[in-house]
Design goal:
Bound molecules: zinc ion
Radius of gyration: 24 Å
Distance between the termini: 66 Å
Number of strands: 24
Number of helices: 12
Largest sheet: 7 strands, antiparallel
Mean pLDDT: 81
Length: 454
């Protein structure tokens, strides 16, 4: 049985990826299955209103030890304009790096299709400018504006503690997460009912202020993918692979071969991989989890000559710790007649056509205005307008995303921001992270004008 779950953060969430280093703590933009699993385990025993009752260790062991593979939770932004999932780019995709000529395409091109069709195009250079292609570097691409990094200061009796200024990135509120759980047939029906019930679970660190998520889940029907011939096997989550002696390995071809039926005629034609280390932070123990080598999400193999039995075997996943979501795969049918150019998506903003925007958005500033009173109101609006204009200018000049993120992260250090409460600061960061700041400029101009009226 397969369940789709949705995590809707009630506040910021910030699941720690590894121990804090130099006062900066990385976060998972994609929440690993292990973190979701841990949050479910805590809720099972400890949730004030939705723990599993009556207490039953055997049912817990059956579910958590053997009965359930929890896949990663992928962020998606659920704005009024529609739902957008984080974009996935398999490592077989390449594109022109600098777009030096007008003929250069900004789209991704799939080397797996080129290989199948016997084309040398995009195998190493862009056909238009003849410069080396740029391969996809990250499996999941979470837009910068989906996370913010407020600087928090540890306070003792209201005074900042020396050396205790640290940055903890967190994911902004209107992003939600979706993932799947694969359940074994042996799982107790009461345990399934518990999983399907709405509840609150706590994901990641700083449990007092962050991490509360609404959990909802439903059973989904899965049809076996009708794939035969050629396919790509794409890792949606890092895979922890070991060789026949149990030593760490980065051999994707070997990992696929090891799950195929012995008489399978399928062959792995090519692989595109990147290594990475995976680690975790054990929130309860306050200790790092062991670090392991893994093939990064996005690693891809082209497999030819597959039949239904092969697809079934591979689709269960690759490598170790699959109950924690490691080694989750997606299998995509491939044919030589497919276009090499990958269908356009919103992932590449480098040549995004200008979109018509509506400049007025009444009510946009209301939450901020409600929290600001008296003399704070006017100077905050003006400081915010100055900051918004600076960011607009950086964007118009195509500044690198990290420069803009860096500026936003530094904002809480500014004198005018320090005067404001954390809630007001959050509202300001939310406004400045909007895709199109023109509406912000417009509404701020109106609000400032309103304030100036005698
Ligand atoms: Zn080019």
């Amino acid at each position: 049985m397969k369940i789709v779950y949705t995590l809707t953060p009630k506040s910021r969430i910030s699941p720690g990826r590894r121990a804090q280093v130099q006062n900066v703590r990385e976060i998972h933009e994609v929440i690993p299955g292990s973190v979701v699993r841990g949050a479910l385990g805590t809720a099972w025993w400890g949730s004030p209103d939705s723990r599993f009752e009556p207490e039953n260790q055997a049912v817990f062991d059956e579910l958590f030890a053997r009965g359930m593979d929890v896949m990663a939770a992928i962020p998606r932004s659920g704005s009024d304009a529609g739902v957008r999932e984080a974009a996935f780019t398999p490592f077989s995709w390449v594109r022109c790096k600098y777009l030096p000529t007008a003929e250069c395409s900004s789209q991704w091109h799939d080397q797996a299709v080129a290989l199948l069709s016997g084309s040398s195009e995009w195998s190493s250079t862009c056909p238009a400018c003849r410069r080396p292609v740029e391969p996809a570097k990250r499996g999941w691409n979470v837009p910068d504006e989906w996370s913010v990094s407020p600087v928090r200061t540890a306070l003792i009796n209201g005074a900042a503690l020396d050396e205790a200024l640290f940055t903890r990135p967190a994911i902004v509120k209107d992003v939600l997460f979706r993932g799947t759980i694969q359940l074994a047939d042996s799982v107790d029906p009461d345990a399934i009912a518990w999983l399907l019930a709405d509840k609150t679970i706590w994901v990641g660190g700083q449990k007092s202020t962050m991490g509360a998520c609404r959990w909802s889940a439903e059973v989904v029907e899965v049809a076996a993918p009708g794939i035969s011939g050629a396919c790509t096997v794409q890792l949606l989550a890092p895979a922890i692979i070991v060789d026949e002696f149990g030593a760490p390995s980065l051999d994707l071809e070997g990992a696929i071969r090891s799950v195929l039926p012995v008489d399978s005629p399928a062959t792995v034609t090519k692989t595109w991989t990147r290594p990475e280390t995976v680690a975790g932070w054990h929130g309860v123990a306050g200790l790092p989890k062991p670090t392991e080598w893994a093939l990064a999400a996005g690693s891809t193999a082209l497999v030819e000559g597959v039949g239904a039995a092969d697809v079934g075997a591979i689709s269960a996943g690759l490598g170790l710790r699959r109950a924690e979501g490691f080694g989750q795969v997606r299998i995509v049918a491939m044919t030589a007649s497919m276009p090499i150019e990958v269908a356009a998506d919103a992932a590449d903003s480098r040549r995004r056509a200008p979109v018509a925007v509506q400049t007025a958005s009444p009510g946009l500033l209301d939450p901020l205005m409600d929290m600001l009173s008296g003399s704070y109101r006017q100077r905050t609006l003006q400081a915010l307008q100055t900051e918004a204009r600076a960011i607009s200018t950086m964007r118009a000049d195509s500044a690198e995303a990290f420069l803009i993120t860096g500026r936003l992260n530094g904002l809480p250090n500014k004198a005018w921001m320090k005067e404001l409460s954390a809630d007001v600061q959050d509202q300001i960061l939310r406004l400045l992270a909007l895709d199109d700041l023109r509406v912000v400029h417009h509404e701020l101009d109106r609000a400032i004008e309103e304030e100036m009226k005698p």
